[in-house]
């Protein structure tokens, strides 16, 4: 068993045995991994504070065949302002659960980790409405997984201009001409631009805007319909949103 250093975030934590914890971490080096923290429930154990969901930092661990055994942790962000606010914890828990459900062991998950980190920072900042945060996080997650609506060209004819209508059935936009033969929802240019921005934006530029009430409502309706039709997995944490 070799000693390695993993940088990442605790997605979930559960009790095992009398004094130990089992963690699921999303890491830069090895994607999603399972890690055990021996003695992490003993009072005064240095790992106690590092083994809670949202803890982000560096974990020194011995690599076993199917899991890691943590020996030391250096937490750089506990997201303390987030975990003390009930509404933020609920949405943050949803972010963690989605990342846990969609990430795969042994796969490079650096982009997903980056999205999760930026989203938790934005949530903690209090500068964004909760529904805008959820919409941005979900849409960008779908982009990472390659299953997102086409908002750059018409799903009927491929034209890039005059995009007017969002079609759930066609997985994306339709131009004014093609929309005559298909059902869909007419959307404003600001909602279209918002979706284009989120799909193409770099992670560190993702949370740099807010929307007026009308656009935010329209964007929320479109994403809710898309979620219902194509991403219907029920997350436990959704009940609290
Ligand atoms: Zn068209």
- Helix percent reads 25-40%
What portion of residues belong to β-strands?
15-25%
Q: In total, how many domains does the architecture comprise?
A: 2
* Rg (C-alpha, Å): 20 Å
Please give the count of helices: 6
* Mass-distribution shape: elongated
Uncertain segments are: none
Largest sheet, order of strands side by side?
1-2-3-5-4
| Oligomer class | single chain
Q: pLDDT average, as an integer? A: 95
First and last CA, distance: 42 Å
Helix-strand makeup class: alpha+beta
The number of distinct β-strands equals 8
Biggest sheet, in brief? Answer: 5 strands, mixed, barrel
Give, in order, the helices and strands. Answer: EEEEEHHHHEEEHH
Bound molecules: zinc ion
Q: Can you characterise this structure?
A:
- This protein is 34% helix and 24% strand.
- With 241 residues, it is α+β, with helices and mostly antiparallel strands.
- The protein folds into 2 domains: 76 residues, Nucleic acid-binding proteins (OB fold (Dihydrolipoamide Acetyltransferase, E2P), Beta Barrel), CATH 2.40.50; 127 residues.
- The strands form 2 sheets. The chain has a 5-stranded mixed beta barrel. The protein has a 3-stranded antiparallel β-sheet with strand order 7-6-8, with no helix packed on it.
- The radius of gyration is 20 Å and the shape is elongated.
- The mean pLDDT is 95.
- It binds zinc ion.
Features:
241 residues; alpha+beta; OB fold (Dihydrolipoamide Acetyltransferase, E2P); 2 domains; five-stranded mixed barrel; three-stranded antiparallel sheet; 6 helices; 34% helix; elongated; binds zinc ion
């Amino acid at each position: 068993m070799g000693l390695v250093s993993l940088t990442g975030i605790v997605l979930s934590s559960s009790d095992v045995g009398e004094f130990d914890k089992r963690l699921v971490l999303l890491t830069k080096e090895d994607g999603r991994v399972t890690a055990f923290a021996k003695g992490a429930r003993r009072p005064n154990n240095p790992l106690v504070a590092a083994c809670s969901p949202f803890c982000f930092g560096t974990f020194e661990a011995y690599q076993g065949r199917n899991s890691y055994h943590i020996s030391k942790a250096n937490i750089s962000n506990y997201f303390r302002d987030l975990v003390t606010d009930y509404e933020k914890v609920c949405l943050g828990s949803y972010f963690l659960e989605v990342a846990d459900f969609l990430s795969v062991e042994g796969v490079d998950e650096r982009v997903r980790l980056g999205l999760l980190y930026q989203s938790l920072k934005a949530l903690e900042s209090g500068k964004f409405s909760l529904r805008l945060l959820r919409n941005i996080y979900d849409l960008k997650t779908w982009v990472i997984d390659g299953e997102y609506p086409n908002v750059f060209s018409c799903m009927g004819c491929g034209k890039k201009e005059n995009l007017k209508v969002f079609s759930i059935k066609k997985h994306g936009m339709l131009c004014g001409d093609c929309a005559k033969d298909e059902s869909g929802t007419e959307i404003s240019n600001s909602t279209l631009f918002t979706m284009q921005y989120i799909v193409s934006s770099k992670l560190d530029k993702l949370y740099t805007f807010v929307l007026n009430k009308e656009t935010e409502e329209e964007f929320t309706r479109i994403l809710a319909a898309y979620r219902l039709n194509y991403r219907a997995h029920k997350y436990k944490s959704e009940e609290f949103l």
